[in-house]
Every structure is written in structure tokens, then in C-alpha cells.
Amino acid sequence: MIMRIAVLGASGRTGSALVDKALERGHEVVALVRTPAKVTVPASRRVEVRKADVTVPQSFPDLTDVDVTVSAIGIGKGDGPGALVAGARVLAAANVRATVWLGALGSGVSSRSGGLIYAGVMRMFVGSELAEKVEADQIALDAGATVFHAPDVTDGPLSPTRHIVPLADLRRPLLPPRISRATLASLLLDEAETGRHGTGIVVPLS
Question: Which positions carry the signal peptide feature in this UniProt record (predicted)?
Fold first, then answer.
């Protein structure tokens, strides 16, 4: 079934992968970005670019014409604190049928789920942002979203063994887990299409 999918953060690396894969599957895409002039999207009528600055919620575009929203935003350089929480809040208020929110393995309730080494790496490199990630996740969950706690994202091919596991069923790995961006984008879209896991935290795996 062809869907109309809004991608928040469509100009980022994961967001761009989401746009490309959604188009490959025949969907219509609404690219939500802060700076439309910087967006490079395929020359296709199925992509509509809308200016969407989560820090200015009063001017955030209407999304009642889309079937599902997938968020690929993170905390970028120069964003300062609050951008991620602001993104969760605007999507929670957007009145979209379904939302898939991208969070991080090793934050909040999954703080030890990636293993002890992974937990240490998260504290070292993400430490100051962990509290904001937890708050944003909770806002998304309260609004009924499926929240992906993705492990470290790398470049690489699409995994043929990709799958999604509810956080409660995740077996703690010995080594820090990783997932390719192509695999993550595909699994985010799988959930957007099926809504199989509903409200809750899930982990995408290769």
C-alpha cells in the first residue's frame, strides 16, 4: 500500500537514507527540514519539501495529510540543548496517525542493554545528551510512538538478517552492537508501514 510518509530531519544522513528507501518502495514523501535550500532530494513529484524548525513550533507545518511520521533528528552541532525535546513535542502535537521515533540504545531504560562496554562508550561520548534523549523518548512514548533504540550507526550494506526486537526481549551482547544506516532506515520504514510493534521501545538489529 502506498503511504504518505513525513520524514523529520530528512536532510541528515539517516533522514536521506529514509527518503531514498521510501521512494524505492513507492511511497510519497514529505521531507521536513529546517533549511529547505540545503536539501538534495531525487527529482520526483513524490517528494515535497516543507520548512520545519522544531524550535519554532508555532510555524511548524501541518501534517494532517500524512499517514505516518518518521523522525531521524538528533542533536546536531550548534543546536544546543532542547532541540530533541522540541522535536518530540511538535510531533506529539501534530495529530498524525502514527509516529516512529529514533532514539539511542544505551539511554534511559536501555542504558545497560548494549552491554557494559557500550554503556561506557555512551557515557563518554554522549553523556551530557543522555538526559535529553530520555526526555524526548518519553514524550514520544506518551504520544503513542514506536521508539527505536538504535545501536551505533555505521556505513555499510543492507543486512539480509535485519530484524526488530522489543527491548524486553533483547539479549545483552558481549561486544558493542552496530547497525548500518541502510539497515536502520529499512527497519524504520518496516515499522512505519506495518505498525507491528505499537507503542513501546524496540531495538533494530542486523
Answer: none
Average pLDDT taken over every residue of the chain? 91
Q: How many CA atoms lie within 13 A of 159 on its CB side?
A: 18
Amino acid sitting at position 9: G
Local structure of 58: helix, strand or coil:
helix
**pLDDT value of position 7:** 97
Q: What gap in Å lies between CA 185 and CA 65, rounded to an integer? A: 22
Residues 6+ apart with CB under 8 A from 5: 22, 27, 28, 29, 30, 66, 67, 68, 69, 70, 189, 192
Residue 195 sits at φ, ψ, to 5 deg, of 60, 25
SS3 188: helix
Q: What is the bridge-based pairing of β-strands 98-104 and 146-150? A: parallel
Cell of 115: 552491554
pLDDT at 33: 94
Under DSSP, is residue 34 helix (H, G, I), strand (E, B) or coil? coil
3-state secondary structure of 139: helix
30 pLDDT above the threshold of 60: yes
pTM for the full model?
0.93
Query: Cell match 516512529: residue?
Result: 100
101-145 pLDDT tens trace: 999 999 999 998 998 887 787 787 776 788 899 999 999 999 999
Contact 70, 9 (CB under 8 A): no
As a dihedral over the C-alpha atoms of residue 123, residue 85, residue 69, residue 101, rounded to 10 degrees, the angle is 20
